Amino acid sequence: MSISHLCDICVPFECLEASQQNVKSTRSKVTPERLALLVLSALLAAAVVALCVTSECAQFSDFKKRFFPVMFFFFNIFKGDPCSKCEEGWEHHGGKCYYFSTNKSSWTKSRDDCRAKGGDLVKIDSREEQEFLRKKVRRIMKDHEDKFWIGLTDSAEQGRWLWVDGSPLNESLSYWKDTEPDNWGEDDCVMMGDKGDRYQKSWSDTSCKVSRRSICEKPAKQLD
């Protein structure tokens, strides 16, 4: 029996790998009960692999149908969807895929580029997501001015900040730097990033015409 056939029948290791990454990113929220469930899932996965290695995998197709729903139940207890994947060049986190552009362009052009990739400029829905993006951006920034567009603007009405999906900014989930937004001139679009920043507040408004890198976002694809 070929290795590829064996992998088709046995446990989806992508799920295990994604689950490990997801647990690491949400370590502070992992309870002993959830950890025990993850360990149990891993042991069950190992048992199935051992059965597949020592016997004909085809004999376990019925077991697979019964086993996988249980596995997915345990995986889905953790935040996000671990059994999902992203295209090459995108980064998976919390059931979403993120693309950090290398080229710089205006806010509008950046949004067009994100849409062409099947997503949109990122909408930040939680403190955890903000922290993930802040740390990632800080690592890849080349200098203090190397900031990234996010999907937030008040171009329709001054002072009324809307995400690209039309939803208003939740002030309890806003991460403006001190003295921001300053609403100076045509500062209608929001960028994030500060090379030396170690705090969550990393947003600032600027002209939408300024060239910046950007963060695209789209849902992760379910593994087959």
Automatic annotation (TrEMBL):
- Mind telling me which Gene3D superfamilies this protein's record contains? Mannose-Binding Protein A, subunit A
Q: Which Pfam families match?
A: Lectin_C (PF00059)
Alphabetized, the UniProt keywords read: Disulfide bond, Lectin, Membrane, Transmembrane, Transmembrane helix
**InterPro entries referenced in this protein's UniProt entry, alphabetically:** C-type_lectin-like, C-type_lectin-like/link_sf, C-type_lectin/snaclec_domain, C-type_lectin_CS, CD209-like_CTLD, CTDL_fold
Q: Which SMART domains match?
A: CLECT
> Which superkingdom, per the lineage?
Eukaryota
Show the SUPFAM superfamilies listed in the entry: C-type lectin-like (SSF56436)
Where, by residue number, does the polypeptide cross the bilayer?
Answer: 35-58
- Pinpoint the C-type lectin domain residues: 93-217
GO terms, molecular function: carbohydrate binding
Q: What is this protein called?
A: C-type lectin domain-containing protein
Q: Which organism is it from?
A: Astatotilapia calliptera (Eastern happy)
